[in-house]
Amino acid sequence: MAVRLIPAIPLGDGLYLTALPPEGLHGSPAPEALWGLNASRQEQRLLGWLKEQAPDASCHLKCLQILKGLRDLRRHGLEEPFCSQWGRVLSSYVLKTALFSLLLQGPLEAWDEQFLVERLEDLVLYLRDCLRKQMLMDFFLGNTSIPEAVALPRFLKEAAPVNLLSAFDRPTLDLVAFQLISTWIQAPHIIRMYSSPRYLRPVPTPCRHMAEARQEPPAE
User: Could you tell me which residue ranges the Mab-21-like HhH/H2TH-like domain spans (predicted)?
Assistant: First the structure.
């Protein structure tokens, strides 16, 4: 079992500065950016607020899960170095940021589960536009449109906005945008192709002692 330790500096109110992985610096025009902001508690507050405001059968979390799944499945058909760039550009944090930004554009009633396909397409197109414009601002830093109910610390509200895509050049973002739309158009084919047993993780084989224990008859 591998354990990954990530250095973190507490800032208060559930906020942490966390050390960025070395691969996060490749191709970055600002190599001095060695720390990222972890705002998990603020994310949970936002999700709680959305749960209260959105329809009971809201599909916003399903949209995020499906988009993450398509991203991971599509990676199987990509070659290096673009395969790594694909994962770094479309990181889970970038996908969540795109979803949160789109949700606040409203109306939340439009995220009812019956509109799942339409909202998922909206999310894909919104993310494509961000990639083409080379701009997706961090959701919690300097964002004045966040509902007051989320209760952000003052220094987050007053922080300078940060562009999450600034570390990537235009050709990379254009290629990711093209591949994202291609993935969306070919989604049924990609799901069928890369969901086969060949690409699924093998189920761990139980150790010999556990297998023998299961075969032993119960004591009388």
Answer: 59-142
What count of other Cβ atoms lies within 10 Å of the Cβ of residue 36? Answer: 18
3-class DSSP state of 112: strand
Residue 173 belongs to domain spanning: 42-195
d(CA 73, CA 187): 10
Q: Check: CB of residue 113 under 8 Å from CB of residue 121.
A: no
In a domain, 162, yes or no: yes
CATH of the domain at 119: 1.10.1410.40
Query: Is pLDDT larger for residue 71 or for residue 201?
Result: 71
User: Considering only 7-21, 23-37, 47-61, which range has the smallest mean pLDDT?
Assistant: 23-37
Is residue 163 classed as helix, strand or coil in its secondary structure?
strand
Return d(Cα 115, Cα 206) in angstroms, integer: 43
Residue 53 included in any domain: yes
Structurally, the chain folds into a number of domains equal to: 1
188, burial (CB in 10 Å: exposed 0-12, middle 13-18, buried 19+): exposed
Give kind and range of the element (H or E) at residue 158: none
pLDDT class of 129 with cuts at 50, 70, 90? very high
Query: 20: which 2 tokens?
Result: 């960025």
Tell me: the pLDDT tens digits for 205-215? 444 444 454 44
Cα 19 to Cα 48: distance, rounded to the nearest angstrom: 27
| Structural domain contains residue 201 | no
How far apart are the two ends of the chain, measured CA to CA in Å?
A: 37
